[in-house]
Design a protein that fits this description.
The protein is α/β, with parallel strands linked by helices and about 250 residues long. It has eight helices and nine strands.
């Protein structure tokens, strides 16, 4: 056991994350999950994340999207948070175009039922260079599937439910190599259970007493997965933990 001593100041909070090599040996998409939790493990207050997110966490949360080819989010989180398209600062957008990629990444919404409000900004205000994607399954109602196609690019990934492996294969085929999952807990649990999460970026806010909803929700019999600590950053009372999936047994 060791004390973590204060280190040098980090001028750009995104820099330690931008320096990570996110290429995978088999060419499949790299999946980073980015979540925030209180000291008691809660991930929302009154059903929303905003009250848990401190100022430095809000900044990093927005900036992390700079590194993504696509931002993945569950339909429940889209509804609860009133999601819009990705907005980046001019500097962050410019850093993307300098790399030869669009100024902002698209959002991909995972929904089995397609019970979605198509007037939400994430659909109605998506830019032409990053149209919103909806990932669903083959059993989605035909009329809802047709309606989804009028408002988003639709990927069908699985039969009775969205299959994480098939979903990532579809995203890879569309040219998305780095996937940033922003939750919610049920979607994250499904991805971890399928063993497709490579990296977990977890912000710990110095708060307790939120909703009894953990960072990830798992089904009965889902296996445990191991992660190793890659780095720790601190801004005031907020901790930023980065973990990598261990797959060497």
């Amino acid at each position: 056991m060791r004390f973590l001593e204060p280190g040098r100041e980090v001028e750009d909070p995104l820099a330690p994350y931008a320096a990570v090599d996110r290429r995978t040996p088999d060419g499949r998409p790299w999946v980073t999950a980015h979540m925030v939790a209180g000291l008691d493990g809660c991930t929302a207050v009154g059903g929303r994340v905003g009250a848990l997110s401190t100022a430095p966490d809000k900044t990093l949360f927005a900036d992390m999207r700079t590194l993504a080819d696509v931002v993945l989010v569950g339909a429940g989180t889209v509804r609860q948070e009133g999601y819009g398209p990705v907005r980046l600062s001019p500097e962050r957008s410019r850093s993307r175009t300098d790399r030869g990629v669009p100024p902002t990444p698209p959002v991909a919404v995972v929904s089995r039922s397609l019970d979605l409000d198509w007037q939400l900004p994430v659909f109605a205000q998506a830019p032409s260079h990053a149209p919103t994607i909806v990932v669903t399954c083959a059993t989605a109602a035909g009329e809802r599937l047709a309606l989804a196609g009028e408002h988003a690019d639709v990927f069908v990934a699985g039969g009775d439910a969205v299959d994480p492996g098939t979903m990532l294969a579809e995203l890879s085929a569309a040219g998305f190599g780095t996937v940033l999952c922003e939750g919610g807990p049920h979607l994250l649990g499904q991805l971890v259970a399928a063993d497709v999460v490579d990296e977990l970026c977890l912000s710990i806010a110095p708060l307790m007493g939120g909703d009894p909803l953990p960072v990830a929700v798992f089904g009965p019999g889902d296996p445990m997965r191991g992660f190793e600590l890659a780095h720790v950053l601190r801004d005031g009372g907020t901790l930023f933990l980065r973990y990598l999936r261990t797959r060497d047994g």
